[in-house]
Design goal:
359 residues; alpha/beta; 12 strands; 34% helix; binds S-adenosyl-L-homocysteine; binds iron/sulfur cluster
Length: 359
């Protein structure tokens, strides 16, 4: 269900924009649809035909996304396995410090070699309603101030729905625009479309390598934009919007943690309006990649800092409960759900406060 379809169906029964906005405000903030305001009960404001339609709408919206299971992490995060109306499963993550990470697709066509989500290709797009519904589920559990589109899927491959969701969250949902984060491997459509929106989100770019050939190997179906060109486009976006770019670098032992890459990052990012987030690889049994030793991560962070690149280390939230993108779903699909979730990592590994979300 797209948000525009919901708007249209309410308009068809005689609701005016102000009525529809009231219903959307209640929904996106996690309240019953007929909540009204402090000063005005909904019965004194919403037309009768709309009030009569609300119970059915409430039920339909609740059916968009339901929590199938919840896996609290040790860091204050919680991974939610979310079931959509057709039985498909996606992951949302409640992040520490009032954030939520939502999915935009079931599966993903980019097929990054290190990511569980990309393993089966794209299964289907999520509607804008299904994305907002994940935020609503989160808001019913905790306050939410920040929404990152960093769950399953590549937002640029479902850009109309993602932008529709962002638009509603940044208006009726009362979220600050810079607290809505669009995470992408980089696609020209992103740089064309996002600046034209009423609600302009912050941008996270998954870079992972400064070497074009290695990047093409790791992200096989990402658009072939040269890393230097990608950084140039992103820098324009950052200057236009006033929000720094959050670069993401999933750090894999022996793959993209070399001195050559450090030099490449310095060459591309020093002096840029940007933050480099190193995300030590969240190891999964299904793939042969490993995370680098903690000493190596620390040394890399220090060197980047010293050479003028603002760098943080972020651990994927809830990594003790299969925190990597798509890992929880893939385990369930493999029929493994009854097994207690096994801690994947030794404790005390995080370098900095654990937080895969963005400031
Ligand atoms: N498709 C978008 C958004 C979803 S993926 C994108 O790629 O930006 C969000 C981030 O999760 C990406 O930066 C990806 O590199 C990272 N990621 C995926 N699997 C991971 C794993 N096992 N360990 C650490 N980071 C992972
Ligand atoms: Fe898709 Fe992002 Fe996973 Fe790559 S890292 S396969 S783009 S979800």
């Amino acid at each position: 269900m797209r948000i525009e379809q919901i708007r249209q169906s309410l308009s068809d029964i005689g609701a005016k924009d102000c009525h529809i906005d009231r219903v959307f405000r209640a929904w996106t903030q996690g309240f019953p649809l007929d909540r009204g305001t402090r000063k005005q009960a909904s019965a004194d404001f919403l037309p009768l035909a709309l009030r009569q339609a609300l119970p059915r709408l409430e039920e339909a919206l609740a059916g968009l996304a339901r929590i199938r299971s919840e896996h609290p992490g040790e860091d204050g995060s919680a991974r939610l396995l979310v079931e959509l109306a057709d039985g498909q499963l996606v992951e949302s993550v409640l992040l520490p410090r009032e954030g939520v990470c939502v999915s935009s697709q079931v599966g993903c066509a980019v097929g990054c070699t290190f990511c569980m989500t990309g393993r089966d290709g794209l299964l289907r797009q999520l509607s804008s309603g299904e994305m907002v519904a994940q935020v609503v589920l989160a808001r019913r559990q905790r306050p939410v101030r920040r929404v990152v589109f960093m769950g399953m899927g590549e937002p640029s491959h479902n850009i109309d729905n993602v932008l529709e969701a962002i638009n509603l969250l940044g208006t009726a949902g009362c979220l600050g625009h810079k607290n809505l984060v669009f995470s992408t491997v980089g696609d020209l459509r992103v740089f064309e479309r996002l600046p034209q929106q009423r609600v302009i989100p912050a941008l996270a770019i998954s870079l992972h390598s400064t070497r074009a050939e290695l990047r093409a190997e790791l992200l096989p179906r990402a658009p072939r934009i040269d890393p230097a060109e990608l950084v140039g486009l992103a820098e324009d976006y950052a200057r236009r919007t006033g929000y720094p770019i959050q670069y993401q670098w999933t750090l894999i032992d022996g793959v993209n943690d070399s001195q050559e890459e450090i030099d490449g990052i310095v060459r591309l990012l020093s002096g840029k309006y940007a933050i480099m987030n190193l995300i030590p690889y969240n190891t999964t049994e299904a793939l042969a990649y490993r995370r680098p030793a903690i000493e190596k991560v620390t040394a890399m962070t220090r060197e980047l800092h010293a050479r003028g690149v603002r760098t943080t280390v972020r651990n994927s939230a809830g990594q003790d409960v299969d925190g990597g993108c798509g890992q929880l779903r893939s385990r369930l699909e493999a029929g493994d759900s009854e097994k207690p979730l096994r801690p994947l990592l030794r404790k005390n590994l995080p370098l900095l406060p654990n937080d895969s979300g963005l400031e």
